[in-house]
User: Fold these one by one.
Assistant:
Number 1:
Amino acid sequence: MCVWAEGGRRYMVFEVFLKGTLFFPCEPDRGLVRVHELTPEKAGQLIWVRARIHTSRAKGKQCFLVLRQQQFNVQALVAVGERASKQMVKFAANINKESIVDVEAVVKKVEQTIESCSQQDVELHIERVGLSSALSDHTTDKQTDRHAHGGRTDGRATVNQDTRLDNRVIDLRTTTSQAIFRLQSGVCQLFRDTLTNKGFVEIQTPKIISAASEGGANVFTVSYFKTSAYLAQSPQLYKQMCICADFDKVFCVGPVFRAEDSNTHRHLTEFVGLDIELAFNYHYHEVIESITDTMVQIFKGLRDKFQTEIQTVGKQYPSEPFKFLEPTLRLEYSEGVAMLREAGVEMGDEEDLSTPNEKLLGRLVKEKYDTDFYVLDKYPLAVRPFYTMPDPNDKKYSNSYDMFMRGEEILSGAQRIHDAQLLTERAMHHNIDLEKIKSYIDSFRYGAPPHGGGGIGLERVCMLYLGLHNVRQTSMFPRDPKRLTP
Amino acid sequence: MCVWAEGGRRYMVFEVFLKGTLFFPCEPDRGLVRVHELTPEKAGQLIWVRARIHTSRAKGKQCFLVLRQQQFNVQALVAVGERASKQMVKFAANINKESIVDVEAVVKKVEQTIESCSQQDVELHIERVGLSSALSDHTTDKQTDRHAHGGRTDGRATVNQDTRLDNRVIDLRTTTSQAIFRLQSGVCQLFRDTLTNKGFVEIQTPKIISAASEGGANVFTVSYFKTSAYLAQSPQLYKQMCICADFDKVFCVGPVFRAEDSNTHRHLTEFVGLDIELAFNYHYHEVIESITDTMVQIFKGLRDKFQTEIQTVGKQYPSEPFKFLEPTLRLEYSEGVAMLREAGVEMGDEEDLSTPNEKLLGRLVKEKYDTDFYVLDKYPLAVRPFYTMPDPNDKKYSNSYDMFMRGEEILSGAQRIHDAQLLTERAMHHNIDLEKIKSYIDSFRYGAPPHGGGGIGLERVCMLYLGLHNVRQTSMFPRDPKRLTP
């Protein structure tokens, strides 16, 4: 099969006219109808569609196809008769699954709903079919059947995760993957639109940095010409520098790198950070309110604009709809500890939350307040980084917070110390080498407004919103200690 | 000066009540007016403003201040009288420049326009002033004077670029920098909004990759646990995999890494790529039209929504307004070569454009067509990467294109080969080790639609749109072979 032929505005692929002749070049300006546009209103129309062969089943003098385009599919029929020859039916039946075809067909309303397709009220009666991109024979059965179909006809994969990730291109074609990543695109858009409307400025922060912050643990090293550099573990320092530079309210969306040998359902070595930092007027709760309102706008936007995607994912991975309150529930750390103790957990006031305790607290909060999203405020100072602002009223605690979705942490944030002297004192208290963080501390010597912020993990938000159980499902090409491909 | 004190909703910084007493805690819910809101409509009102001391000039019993907030500033006056003591005037005069102050003041309409301020029709008569964030004495004169003011009172820096970049936090406070990066934020937003409206999906591609594409030149190496990895030189492979995975039209905004030892005005080792890839129906010119229309929407959006920023930058760096045509001018490479030859340049048909020739051609195109933006289409096949689709009508050329702003390249793109067999042949022709690009070639074995795209350099677009002359001016924290800080 030839693959190109351009010039003028001719068609770039051969087509096979299935009454026996090759037709080529075809009309270049014929419109292509999208599969999701195939509704009973189009009944009787002769249209062109380009789609993949999802399934194919020959039966006597006819061949039933399911044509798939992204998360939508439609049934199609080639039958021997006035418009199609015996050879054409045979040809259509022999096209490898996952090949891309152009078909000319009449839209017909069906008597009985087609449960297995997204377009349930119509089918296509094919009059011409051309092969737009064929699969070579040896690849078909080996790969595409297992991944795109997984032995089922509903487009949901049943194969194991590593196999799916190894063949990610095919796995991403499933209706579930199409829905997940369309929703992820929506999260980014809602995040940015909400913040832009609040007067935030988008910034671009460097990923190659000269010094590892916070002492150099869990950081990837890069060869940089004749020297070494590091990959940024967070854009925090640069966000703060933008605040010192009077940008007032900033956000950024970009990769974050963690050289952590954690092989869990929720850790990646590279993930996408949705980061916020803002100067506040009088109280760091202004920062919490900005962030929680942004999250609420994301939740509402997903609920209102991405129902199709939520439903599609729910067919393969059923979960309870995501619940949230407005305004967002804010509990103090000590209240959280009290709830855990009441449930039988033994822990100290200044002890950090373990992952099981985080999840348990999530369940207790859900029972008591009926929300899947809440803020835990005023963490013990001892368990937070050196740049965290202490609580001025109780030095045991700090002006810092985590946010949780379905009992798992999606954001960690705080009011930052904006005074070089206090920052130096706190770094010394943590036994941090002052020489290594000199440029960070110096940023605050030229007048810095009080500020705070936080970083949100995009893949976690998508995973937890949809009630999925592995962050690799919401990372298009996940990176972990054991996976660098594709 | 103490830096924090929170609790309840008390104020988090000390203030000095300048009639001699300390007032603290102040009212936390007093509204803060933004400097750009200070217009004659507010005349007579007593308001609070938080801003930086931009300049300060004491003269007898009064002190004139200019208060700056981002790209806006306003004149303010403290004068001995009923509302202010002699000590207060002295105190105000002694506050270090670049400190952040809260002032309570009456807005007064002025008789004569204040040319040196953005708020030209009003001034503030200060009644109270509090220090929100002070500069330590030893830092003031040494740094901030040189950078934020550069010896001038209009907020435009005159110091050299390295000094400015070394002290980027202060340099970013200048009205010019504030305007540049607000406009850059706008470019990203316009890019994404235009594409989202066209049905594109935003994707997130990995930056840590297992194999260096295109043979491994100019790529940064990363230590990855017990093995090595690389930093992605472009998201192209991943964009193409998304097309093979039926996402149809995708874009991404993210860092791109080039280990190229180029020390020029337009090269960075890390820059932000605005990347597009789409399947097309019948002709790769559909791709060019999608991209050029996106650029035109960006140019229009900047012209219509960012005039303040364009004017602000123009005060320090005057340039001709950016001109573009609609639809965008598209020239074939051979036409460009003919224009250059007519202007006396000697070059072969299949020779690549040198940088001086690119600029010359830009000037010739501007003279003839009056546009600062155009597409050069159908590059010689010999000067393009192996994955570029050849022109089916003339094997000397290819279905590839560059786009130029003010005579400098901002995008390189092409129709990509979507057939594994042809791709293999072209790679062999380029003497590329097939083993190294196996996974890339394999991506096309499961049915790929015809597609094309390109990558735009964000910093170059901002630099050339504003008529600036160094890409480091439009990179917030630039990275080049000699610079890794701040």
Number 2:
Amino acid sequence: MPEIGADVDPAELLTVAREEARLGAREGGVPIGAALFGSAGELLGRGRNRRVQDGDPSLHAETAAFRAAGRRPHYRDTIMVTTLSPCWYCSGLVRQFGIPRVVIGEARTFTGGHDWLAEHGVRITVLDDPECAALMRAFVDRHPDLWHEDIGAGHS
Amino acid sequence: MPEIGADVDPAELLTVAREEARLGAREGGVPIGAALFGSAGELLGRGRNRRVQDGDPSLHAETAAFRAAGRRPHYRDTIMVTTLSPCWYCSGLVRQFGIPRVVIGEARTFTGGHDWLAEHGVRITVLDDPECAALMRAFVDRHPDLWHEDIGAGHS
């Protein structure tokens, strides 16, 4: 089997996830975006964190993109692109559904389970994108409470 | 801090998740149910796998119950109850959100990440409930394709 996404530019794929993160920021939400692509770079689903917008704690960016892609028999030929290193919840999604490749905007403001995924054979690309990091940094500075809530680390 | 759920009977909590699994079976869905409880056994949210019913691959039983519970600042005083050993996706949810205790109906028909959760300090109780296992066995026998799809192991 050829390498998944051999002919696609990870930075190009990230533009869709970053656009979702920007939309989330404008809405006052947690500015994390994601998109699921097929192996040739075709978009299957895109989404952003919806905790604030919908009051839904289950929709992280990756799970929102996964949901938007709808039912598929398997994910062995897909690429998950996310603006931020995936938390354990979203890393678990990637592992369970056998998504073979993950492109990450940045892992500076938060590091989730991407090393764990790499240990389990997932190909990881971290782009260290300045805009993705700037969006997160601005949000966490202004709304530390919301960010902590989003990763289950809130105060009582 | 007192032990989470010290005064609750795990088998009693399971009745709610099992009722969700039964409803799912009647709807033709993947018969897995879950419920999130507070430390004194108060119900916070309940749900069932909704792949078939809603065409939504992101709603496993545990994520549906988590969603139904709505936004909370943290989950350090909650108990996740599920009829089946949680897959990596749902195990990741438990770990990320710091849910300290998981009650599992059965782990015979499928074993997910509950040993991994135990290694990371989550208290795991497996009840080996015959009805939970019978619901799953009947479903997997009749719809192996749907079951494999639900765990990302479907055929092309």
